[in-house]
Amino acid sequence: MSKIKLMHAKLHRVRVTEANIEYMGSVTIDRELIEKVGILPLEEVCIWNVNNGQRLSTYVLPGEPGSGMVCINGAAAHLCNPGDAVIIAAYQECDRDEVLLHGHTARVIIADEHNRCQEFLYQQLIPAEGYVEFRSAQSAIAPTNWVNGPLNQPLSADN
């Protein structure tokens, strides 16, 4: 069984609200945002700075719910400035054969300029005769949190 890493959650173009060099590390993100896409506290994430091209890896701490906070902490704060647009992605290790058989779902928030959910997407790999089809569908509303939202439910043919 070969293992592969697939994105399971993404916060697209959130804005850095603070860069705190003195904090010991991590990124602090509005708890509502991480819950909607299923990122757990202490989970490793990749951060790509759209403004300057810098890339980094760190772990997540939950911030004040509804605050819109995205605070880059520690040494990584040298790579991002308040106002920078960043993409934050989390990956999970999956068994390739299981993905080909059962598919995979990732949750994506496209943020507005205040780090609110402007658009919510399910990006899915749908099993298709030994391979997978990629589908991306906008959801009318984002799930309240990762526990209550539909994971790995196939999209309808209309999507």
TrEMBL record:
The keyword NAD does not apply. Pathway: Cofactor biosynthesis; (R)-pantothenate biosynthesis; beta-alanine from L-aspartate: step 1/1. It catalyses: L-aspartate + H(+) = beta-alanine + CO2. The active site is at 26 (schiff-base intermediate with substrate), 59 (proton donor). It is an enzyme of class 4 (lyase). The modification Pyruvic acid (Ser) is found at residue 26. GO terms for cellular component: cytosol. This is Aspartate 1-decarboxylase. It comes from Planktothricoides raciborskii GIHE-MW2.
